[in-house]
Design brief:
Layout (H helix, E strand, L loop, with lengths): L7 H14 L20 H8 L6 H10 L8 E8 L9 H16 L4 E8 L1 H7 L3 H20 L4 E5 L11 H14 L4 E7 L4 H12 L5 E6 L21 H16 L49 H15 L3 H4 L12 H5 L5 H9 L16 H21 L22 H9 L5 H13 L4 H14 L4 H11 L5 H11 L15 H8 L4 H6 L21 H15 L1
Parallel strand pairs: 1-2, 1-4, 2-3, 4-5
The structure holds flavin-adenine dinucleotide.
Length: about 575
């Protein structure tokens, strides 16, 4: 990702000024009660497991089965963009164009639109970061231009209510229907959209499906995964909760498609439209409120290029130069050894099908080696992209993990220490453990840290500090440019031993070993913790003493976890 080059002292100065702003650490301690006054309980979560409560994804599928498409009195087709802000290989958009072409044969005046809906309350409830929202706003402007070249206007609708309402509410359904009616001048509209797998979003879609009528028909599609949720099950038809066997099936599934084509994944490319609708391209009037931008360093921030082309060229660069070294370099803290594609993937500026198709070209015809341990660098890169699918599948299978609950419900009994002062020090990079502080400061300053960094800091928070992993999970969402609830919950569950296919509880990262292995010359640490630049082996006065003793805190974690599990 292209970012401004900053000197270490700038980084620290900027972090200090940000500290003055960051005051409400309590918001990370629990779900926001304004939006979730009655959070799900362990019993409620178990209802999904014992099938006494239907999973939202199943409800969507059931409702969709009953649907029939009718073009009667329909004049408008509209694609509703969500986390799929791209033209290239977008299933819902592709279907939208196909439906429109069918409709056009019946109604020569039919129109095709695209829409994006802003609900700031959804952003607040989900703790979307300023970095990510700024990226989305830039991407929308760019998308508006690209769509205009296809003669498709992109509308921006804002849903605001005085009482802070999420989009899974009946108020939203009314708002949405009314907006559609206005666009189609009182006739019917067909909406296409790609499914988002978090429960709030699925319940929003369910509500809309339940309120379908002749004025509004909704068509939802699987798009964000390479293999859609529900397609990979064990031979007994149950859901996988362990990655490796799931991944082997995933590979089989993908290879099966490849047998009949030259590509490994099917891409959905829209043909040029024979359609020449003219309209005035008006700049969007919306600007992000300050509350979402307060954590962004004003003087130095630099967003990655938001265009679809930038995502493609980033992929090309990565596959051309770095991917062959991925196995050795992906974890190094001082190198950019990974693709840096996550913000593009999270916001949907690039499809993971396209990524895997392109990466596959350098895999000698095999997406995975016969023995997993022999996977080449590029094969392992594809495997990482598969982890993203895995976590999405899991969120559909265990929906309570999208409602603030751990996958392993027994871990609710862990007696967290939850020291708010220790939490603040972790958040702001002042724990006195250099590697943790360097990573947390980088996160604050840039909105991005690599996977190893996320694992190190998540392990430190949940094990060494014994702070409920959900505090850290929320902090990450609020500060990551690529914040994605299923991967974030999945990653935190893995590191804190509370989630799906997690590390065993007795695996506690040793911070000294992590530092020696992934930043042996302290290049990364000295960049972000400039206090340590000139300190040979002595701890300088202006750098905090370690918040915990690593050995003692490890033993404490083992005991507390063991007592609960
Ligand atoms: C505690 C924790 C929190 C995380 N939170 C997020 C998050 O909010 N959003 C997010 O996109 N990823 C998250 N991850 C996964 C991973 O760290 C990032 O996807 C990755 O660091 C992004 O950088 P990259 O694009 O350069 O990755 P690359 O190594 O180049 O990987 C390419 C893509 O594969 C996917 N991917 C890679 N590793 C993982 C993984 N372990 N799990 C799921 N998908 C993966 C991502 O889409 C990534 O962009 C988290 C991991 C942990 C341990």
């Amino acid at each position: 990702m292209k970012r401004t080059v900053i000197s270490s002292s700038n980084a620290y100065a900027s972090k200090r000024s940000r500290l003055d702003i960051e005051h409400d650490f309590e918001q990370y301690h629990s779900l926001n009660k304004k939006y979730y006054p009655r959070p799900i309980t362990r019993t409620g979560a178990n209802q999904f497991n014992n099938k006494s409560r239907a999973k939202p994804m199943e409800i969507v599928e059931k409702l969709q089965k009953k649907q029939k498409t009718s073009f009667e009195n329909v004049s408008t087709v509209m694609h509703w963009f969500r986390n799929d802000l791209r033209l290239y290989d977008n299933v819902g958009l592709y279907k939208s164009v196909a439906l429109f072409q069918q409709l056009r044969q019946k109604n020569a005046k039919a129109k095709l639109y695209a829409v994006y809906v802003i609900n700031e309350d959804d952003w607040r409830a989900h703790m979307d970061s300023g970095w990510k929202l700024m990226f989305i706003m830039g991407a929308l402007k760019n998308l508006q231009q690209s769509l205009a070249e296809l003669h498709i206007p992109l509308l921006l609708w804002e849903f605001h209510t005085p009482k802070s309402t999420l989009s899974n509410s009946k108020e939203f359904v009314e708002f949405f229907k009314e907006k559609c009616m206005n666009v189609s001048s009182g006739t019917g509209t067909i909406i296409t959209a790609n499914i988002e797998y978090q429960t709030d979003e699925l319940y929003r879609d369910i509500r809309l499906l339940e309120n379908e009528d002749h004025r509004l028909q909704l068509k939802y599609y699987h798009d964000s995964c390479i293999v859609a949720p529900g397609l990979i099950t064990t031979d007994r038809g149950t859901n996988y909760s362990v990655f490796t066997p799931w991944y082997k099936k995933w590979v089989l599934y993908v290879n099966n498609y490849k047998k009949s084509t030259s590509e490994i994944c099917h891409l959905h490319i829209i043909e040029p439209l024979k359609y020449n609708e003219t309209f005035e391209l008006k700049p969007f009037q919306y600007s992000l409120p300050d509350e979402f931008l307060q954590y962004i360093p004003k003087s130095k921030w630099c967003l990655p290029d938001v265009s679809e082309e930038a995502a493609l060229s980033r992929l090309k660069d990565f596959l051309g130069t770095k991917s062959s070294k991925y196995n050795n370099e992906k974890d190094m803290l001082y190198l950019g050894g990974t693709s840096g594609l996550s913000v593009y993937i999270t916001t949907g500026r690039i499809s993971t099908r396209l990524i895997v198709n392109q990466a596959f070209q350098s895999c000698n015809g095999q997406i995975m080696s016969k023995a997993l341990k022999d996977n080449s660098s590029t094969q392992n890169f594809i495997k990482e992209v598969a982890w993203r699918d895995f976590y999405r599948h899991c969120m559909c299978n265990w929906p309570y993990t999208s409602m603030g609950m751990p996958y392993r419900l027994d871990t609710l009994d862990i007696k967290w220490e939850n020291n708010p002062v220790a939490f603040e020090k972790w958040c702001t990079g002042n724990t006195g453990i250099p590697i943790v502080d360097a990573i947390m400061r980088k996160l604050l300053y840039t909105g991005y840290i690599n996977n190893r960094s996320r694992m190190i800091t998540a392990s430190f928070l949940s094990k060494n500090l014994l702070i409920d992993w959900r505090w850290g999970e929320r902090w990450f969402m609020k500060h990551l440019i690529d914040g994605d609830s299923s991967s974030n919950v999945g990653g935190w569950g893995f590191c804190s031993s509370t989630g799906i296919d997690a590390q065993p509880y007795f695996r506690v990262f040793n911070m000294d070993i992590q530092a020696k292995k992934y930043d042996p010359q302290m290049i990364f640490v000295k960049q972000w913790v400039p206090e340590l630049i000139s300190s040979e082996n002595k701890r300088p006065e202006n750098y905090p003493k370690p918040l915990v003793d690593l050995k003692h805190s490890r033993e404490r974690a083992l005991k507390v976890y063991k007592d609960a599990m």
